[in-house]
Predict the structure.
Amino acid sequence: MGTGQTADGSVRTPLSRDRILVTAVAMADTGGLDSLTMRSIGHELGVEAMSLYNHVRDKGEILAGIADLVLSEFDIRPPARDWRTATRESAISAHEALLRHPWSCELILAPRPPRILPARMRWIESILARFRAAGFSPAAASRGYHAIDSHVLGFTLWELGHRLPDDAPPDFLERVMRETDFSAFPYLLEHAAVHRAMSEEPELGEFEFGLDLILEGLDRHRTSQ
Amino acid sequence: MGTGQTADGSVRTPLSRDRILVTAVAMADTGGLDSLTMRSIGHELGVEAMSLYNHVRDKGEILAGIADLVLSEFDIRPPARDWRTATRESAISAHEALLRHPWSCELILAPRPPRILPARMRWIESILARFRAAGFSPAAASRGYHAIDSHVLGFTLWELGHRLPDDAPPDFLERVMRETDFSAFPYLLEHAAVHRAMSEEPELGEFEFGLDLILEGLDRHRTSQ
DNA sequence: ACCTGAACACCGTTCAAGT
DNA sequence: ACCTGAACACCGTTCAAGT
C-alpha cells in the first residue's frame, strides 16, 4: 500500500473521477445507496477514503455524478417517426435505465442539494425539441415535458417502492398477507388478488398504461393552445 | 433535569410516542428530514436521545410514524358526487397535504425499510372502493389506483424538486440563468421563459393538468375491461 | 501530485446504572 | 417505569505529514 502497487504486487490503476463514479454505480447496483460510504468506495478501489477527496469535492459530487451517469443511459435519439412514437420509445428507454439502477430515481428526484446535471439537460431538451417540432406551442411543449418527465421518474420510483426487496425471504409476501388484517379493507384484498392473477399472465405494463394515457391526452390537447 | 421538571421549574409533560411524532413533524416542516436526529428530537423535547428508545423501537419507526401522520391528513371522504369529481377532490387534498410537508413524499415513496402504514391502507382502500362502486372491474380499479396514487406521490415529489429551496438567495434563479450556457439548449431556454410568463399570470396548476389527463383516460377506458 | 494517519465533530444504538 | 452517562461502531471531512 502507498507504493503504487496492490497487495498482490500488480500495478495499481491510478484513481480518477471516472473510476470512482463507475465503481460507485456498480456498488449501488448491488448494495443500494446506503452501501455507499466514502470508506467503502475507497476500499473497493484499494485506497483510503481520504484519497477520494483528491478527485471529487465531497460525497454529494459522487451522488450527483452517478445520477448523471444513469441519465446518460436514457435514449434521447430514438428513430423519429411521429412525435408520439418517438416520445413513447424514449420514455420507455428511460424507464428501463431507471429500473437497471433502482437507486437512481430517488437521487434524481430528490437531490440534496439540487444540482444541474448535464445529461438531464440534454434529456429535457430532446423532449421539448420533439414537441416543438411537432407543432406544439411553447406552453404546450412545457406541459408535455412536465407530464412525461414526472411520469418517467415519479411512476418508476412509485413502482420500485412496490417491488419486493431482493433480499426478502421467499415467503415474505405470504407472511404479510397472512399477518395483515384485511377485514376493514375488502378492496385492498381484491387488489392483491388482481396482482397475483396478473403475475401469472403478464399483460401490458403499468408504466406503459399511464404513459399512453398521457400521450393520448397530449394529442387531444395539442391544438387547444 | 431528571427531576421531572424542566429548567424553569415547570412540570415536564411526560414523553410519549405521540409527542415524539408530533414534534418530529414540526421539526421536519421547518428544517427538513436532515434536521431529524435522535439527539435533536430529544433536545426539542427537553430529554436525552436515549429516552426516545423507551417509546419507539428505532429511528425508522419515527420516520414511518411521521409519514403516516401526513397520510392521515389526506381527505378520504370528500363529498361523493360522481366518481370523477370525488377522485379529483381527494387527489387534490392529498397533493395539498404533501405540499404542507415537503419532506413526506420521499418518505412515503422510498421507505427504508418498507413498512405497512395504516393511513396508507385506508387511503388506497378509499380509492379502490370508489372505482368499484362506479362500476370499474377489479382490474380496471387496480389500474386506476396505480395511476392516481403514482401521480399524487410521484408528481408532487417531482414538483417539489423543481421548487427553489426556502433558504435560496433571492437572486439565485437569475444567477443560474446567467451562469448556465444555453447555447446547446434553445428549447430549455424557451421553457424557462414560459415559466417566467406563467408565474406572472398563474393558470391551471400542473398537478391538475396531469390529474385530468388520467381521469379522462380512465373514463374512456372504463368500459373496455 | 497524489495518498495516508490521525483527528474532529458528528451519527444511531446499547446497556448498566440511577431515580 | 422511565430517564441518563458512558460507551461503541460507525459516518463525512480536514489537515499536516509522508512519498
About this structure: The longest helix of chain B spans residues 138-161. Confidence is low (pLDDT under 50) at residues 1-11 of chain B.
